[in-house]
């Protein structure tokens, strides 16, 4: 018919409304839609095109039909037919998508393109499938599929915003391999897989689908570092399946345990003490190494690894090494095996005495250095100790590390060998010239040397006279006159001093020196100038209960016993420090440097002197009277009598004479 609004447009041809055969329930839905889509062109035509979101598609369909026929005009019946056709197509689309989603059918699609988040898949529906990008990305970052390649997916759901359908490649793989996995789980047959990544609690393994391998099921023993398994192919067993949730749990431990038990049975059947086996080092500890003998682990203790000394098992073996070991002990009940490695070679200590005679010079490598010396390895399993006292002739070495360090090659001398205790004593200084042997010729007794004060002790001072040679000045050899309590009173560390050699003992490495001997001995001088009976003046230095020590010359002391500290009248004389008195020398011992003093003896000496004075005075008086009476016989007889009386002077005469002398002195005053 002719359009009233556009008279030039001729009547259009009917639309091609060919519809594919639908299910009965779908047909009913479409019939309902068709009946409701019969509209009054005067009332709803414009409204439907403008408000119905599908009106644009309908208009495009009509426009395409008009272009093909060349007719621009169409009537209400054509529009209704087009709308019904579109509704049928939408119903078919919805039904198809619902069927795929509900039954999770595997659909073969085509990869259209890859965005930063999804892979766009053509799944045969009007809307495209959205596949998460991580499902087609390899661990190295490459893509498993290229645009245009076929890919099997499962339609999961329709996006709420109408942007397409969410699809899953992993679910498609699960559907394909699920039957295989179920059979493997039932038959307990192993399957191979690639470790994809590490996840919380274990690993993700690709066995056709992604399965979970718990950390406790990776090895027979717990494993700390799981990162090392990523990217490796392993053999596992399916232990749990949940098809509804799509979960698969696998175990590697079960296969390892079965293999280990099989090997263990073979090993136990042939294991005996003394057997030599080949094993693999599985683990290292501070006390030894665990060796896999074939399903059964044995302990190789560190003390059975080498005849020598090891600080750690890693010094000899590493994990993964294949080594030969000897079965030392086997407990069948506890299935414990003790292994030995050094027992495969003869004990080097058996003939150590013959191979290392005393006095032989040997070369070795320093293993360790301690406070008391250095351990030197002479060969594998044989080591000796160089004690700190045998390292150098010098006494000044503070620590062995000042001379040697681990790894040094040193020449030593065998001092002693004890195979039972596995000990060898070595010496290093014996290969050097002993400076003490020539010291006696170099520094004879009486020689004067000059050195530096190196150290001060309570008993003396050490004087270094040359490198490594120290002499001792005892505190008693520092001064003739002073009582030195500590060498610091007269010497300072580091100062240069002169001393005299008193004696040399090369065997004991001792050199005795003296400082006071450079000065004359005041005692010798005193004993040369004084004799017993001399009266000298002295000053009290200190007192004691038994007497007082008196300084009688510079640096010379004498002792006045308390019994000798009395005056001529027998009265005790009080001796106080600083008092000066006259003392008589009553005892002398030059060897012991002792002088005995007495105040009592001084009084007695004074009395005898007074008697002599009285005698001289009496003699003078009588000789004068004899001159006046010369020639008289009588007088001559009296003179003879007087001479006789003077020779027998009594104590009374002496007292009378002393009294008369005092009276004369008083009168003169």
Please identify the structural class as seen in this structure: alpha+beta
Number of helices: 12
Would you tell me the overall average pLDDT? 77
Which residues sit in consecutive blocks of at least 5 with pLDDT less than 50? 1-72, 625-651
Percent helix range? 25-40%
The order of strands across the largest sheet is 1-2-3-5-4
**Main sheet specs:** 5 strands, mixed, barrel
- Name the beta content range: 25-35%
Strands, helices and their partners?
Layout: H1 24-36, H2 41-51, H3 55-69, H4 76-103, E1 106-114, E2 118-122, E3 129-132, E4 150-158, E5 165-168, H5 169-187, E6 191-199, E7 202-206, E8 210-214, E9 233-242, E10 247-251, H6 253-270, E11 276-285, E12 288-292, E13 297-301, E14 322-331, E15 336-340, H7 352-355, E16 361-370, E17 373-379, E18 382-387, E19 409-418, E20 423-427, H8 439-442, E21 448-456, E22 460-466, E23 469-474, E24 496-505, E25 510-514, H9 522-529, E26 535-544, E27 547-553, E28 556-561, E29 580-589, E30 594-598, H10 600-628, H11 633-646, H12 651-668
Parallel strand pairs: 3-5, 13-15, 18-20, 23-25, 28-30
Antiparallel strand pairs: 1-2, 1-4, 2-3, 4-5, 6-7, 6-9, 7-8, 9-10, 11-12, 11-14, 12-13, 14-15, 16-17, 16-19, 17-18, 19-20, 21-22, 21-24, 22-23, 24-25, 26-27, 26-29, 27-28, 29-30
Helix pairs in contact: 1-4, 2-3, 3-4, 10-11
């Amino acid at each position: 018919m002719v359009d009233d609004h556009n008279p030039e447009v001729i009547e259009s041809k009917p639309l091609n409304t060919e519809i594919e055969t639908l299910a009965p329930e779908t047909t009913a839905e479409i019939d309902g839609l068709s009946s409701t889509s019969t509209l009054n062109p005067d009332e709803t035509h414009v409204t439907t095109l403008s408000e119905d979101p599908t009106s644009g598609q309908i208009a495009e369909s009509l426009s395409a039909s008009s272009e093909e026929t060349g007719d621009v005009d169409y009537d209400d019946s054509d529009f209704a037919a087009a709308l019904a056709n579109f509704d049928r197509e939408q119903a078919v689309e919805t039904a198809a998508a619902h069927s795929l989603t509900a039954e999770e059918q595997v659909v073969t699609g085509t990869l259209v393109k890859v965005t930063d988040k999804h892979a766009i898949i053509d799944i045969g529906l009007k809307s495209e499938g959205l596949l998460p990008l991580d499902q087609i990305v390899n661990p190295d970052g490459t893509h498993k599929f290229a645009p245009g390649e076929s890919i099997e997916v499962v339609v999961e759901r329709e996006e709420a915003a109408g942007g397409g359908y969410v699809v899953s490649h992993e679910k498609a793989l699960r559907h394909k391999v699920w039957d295989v996995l179920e059979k493997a789980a039932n038959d307990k047959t192993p399957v191979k897989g690639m470790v994809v990544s590490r996840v919380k609690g274990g690993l993700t393994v690709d066995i056709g689908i992604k399965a979970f391998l718990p950390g406790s099921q990776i090895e027979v023993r717990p494993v700390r570092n799981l990162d090392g398994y990523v990217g490796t192919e392993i053999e596992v067993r399916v232990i749990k399946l949940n098809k509804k949730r799509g979960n698969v749990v696998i175990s590697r431990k079960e296969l390892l345990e079965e293999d280990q038990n099989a090997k263990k049975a073979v090993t136990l059947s042939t294991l005996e003490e003394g057997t030599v086996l080949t094993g693999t080092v599985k683990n290292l500890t501070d006390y030894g190494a665990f060796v896999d003998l074939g399903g059964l682990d044995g302990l190789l203790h560190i003390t059975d690894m080498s005849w020598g000394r090891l600080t750690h098992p890693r010094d000899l073996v590493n994990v993964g090494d294949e080594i030969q070991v000897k079965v030392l002990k086997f407990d069948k009940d506890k299935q414990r095996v003790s292994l030995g490695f050094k027992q495969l070679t003869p004990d080097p200590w058996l003939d150590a005495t013959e191979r290392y005679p005393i006095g032989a010079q040997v070369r070795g490598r320093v293993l360790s250095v301690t406070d008391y010396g250095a351990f030197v390895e002479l060969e594998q399993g044989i080591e000796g100790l160089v004690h700190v006292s045998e390292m150098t002739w010098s006494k000044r070495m503070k620590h062995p590390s000042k001379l040697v360090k681990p790894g040094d090659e040193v020449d030593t001398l065998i001092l002693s060998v004890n195979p039972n205790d596995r000990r060898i004593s070595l010496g290093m200084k014996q290969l050097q010239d002993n400076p003490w042997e020539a010291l006696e010729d170099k520094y004879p007794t009486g020689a004067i040397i000059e050195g530096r004060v190196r150290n001060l002790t309570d008993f003396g001072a050490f004087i270094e006279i040359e490198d490594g040679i120290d002499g001792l000045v005892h505190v008693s050899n520092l001064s003739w006159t002073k009582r030195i309590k500590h060498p610091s009173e007269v010497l300072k560390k580091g100062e240069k001093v002169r001393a005299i050699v008193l004696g040399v003992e090369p065997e004991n490495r001792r050199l005795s020196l003296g400082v006071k001997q450079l000065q004359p001995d005041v005692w010798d001088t005193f004993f040369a100038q004084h004799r017993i009976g001399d009266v000298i003046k002295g000053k009290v230095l200190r007192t004691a209960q038994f007497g007082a020590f008196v300084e009688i010359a510079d640096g010379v002391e004498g002792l006045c016993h308390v019994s000798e500290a009395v005056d001529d009248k027998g009265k005790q004389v009080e001796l106080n420090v600083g008092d000066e008195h006259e003392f008589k020398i009553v005892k002398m011992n030059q060897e012991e440097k002792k002088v005995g003093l007495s105040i009592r003896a001084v009084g007695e000496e004074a009395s005898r002197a007074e008697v002599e004075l009285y005698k001289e005075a009496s003699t003078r008086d009588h000789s004068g009277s004899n001159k006046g009476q010369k020639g008289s016989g009588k007088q001559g007889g009296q003179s003879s009598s007087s001479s006789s009386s003077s020779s027998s002077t009594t104590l009374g005469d002496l007292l009378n004479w002393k009294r008369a002398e005092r009276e004369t002195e008083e009168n003169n005053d």
